[in-house]
Amino acid sequence: xxxxxxxxxxxxxxxxxxxxxxxxxxxxxxxAEPVRIDKVVQGDANGYAVIIDRISQDVPxxxxxxxxxxxxxxxxxxxxFWWSADEKFFNNCLATKIGVPVPKTVLLPSRDHPxxxxxxxxxxxxxxxxxxxxxxxxxxxAYMKPFAGGGWKNVYKLRGTxxxxxxHSETGQLVMLLQEEIIFxxxxxxxxxxxxxxxxxxxxxxxxxxxxxxxxFTPSPDRLQLMEQIVMRINQYLGYDFNTVELAVRNGIPxxxxxxxxxxxxxxxxxxxxxxxxxxxxxxxxxxxxxLAHRDDVDNLTWGEYVRRSSAxxxxx
Length: 317
Description:
This protein is an alpha/beta fold. The chain has helices at residues 13-24, 60-71, 80-85, 88-97, 131-138, 161-168, 221-238, 268-271, 273-293, 305-311, and strands at 2-7, 30-34, 50-53, 75-77, 105-108, 142-146, 156-158, 176-180, 186-193, 197-202, 242-250, 253-258. It has a 4-stranded parallel sheet, with helices on both faces. A 4-stranded antiparallel sheet has the order 5-8-6-7, with helices on both faces. β11 (242-250) and β12 (253-258) form a beta hairpin. The longest helix has 21 residues, at 273-293.
């Protein structure tokens, strides 16, 4: 029996529907259930061929559990080793190398010293930074947000230098990004599963949260194809099995705004019934595909093109 587990936190609609959908397909030798952990022993297998991870970004214990499971052959979706190393600034840097348009972005050191450091820890950092050069490159209005964070926490829209310094002083030990504002004509949030299954959803981030999937953007067939190619290229290079990409279209060009969402919102109440049904069905089919392909005692993780090409000494493109 190949068991598929799903590891989750407070969400309920997606995990329960996913389990029901997998089991409802009645694939011989395949079953799905919530992951159950009663102990974690180094090097021990956990009995799961596949685990869908929806929560380890918030629970370090789970991240350790999943890495141990992966070493024992579990296909963890998403790869916990890559997810532990990845962050939004690196994603933008990679995008510039693989031909994906992204907003102009700079990385900012934290406003306050990290714990157990002092001003002597920053001998290599210029003081002050070249703020004039940074602001000239990015322009205003701009957005400032955590370089590794998720969701809409600690995100600021800034209209000038005075507002920038005021808000940056409130960010404490967070390392932040300063990013060009893309004033868009259309906006889309795109599921990508398995690096090959894409659902492009019109999305209006300026609406209240519960109304963001209610928009009238209608991409042309050519633009739809271009966005699908961008979404697949990003996820294939990063190696994410389950992710969302946000695309802002300005003057006909889709800019990748945010594409480090490896536990994306899949709650029925927020994404709507049609999108919910698609993500449940596609995730179930992909998990079954991975379970059927699973081999005992080997690495069953997905490693993206960036890692594979780098380890082989090949160029990125």
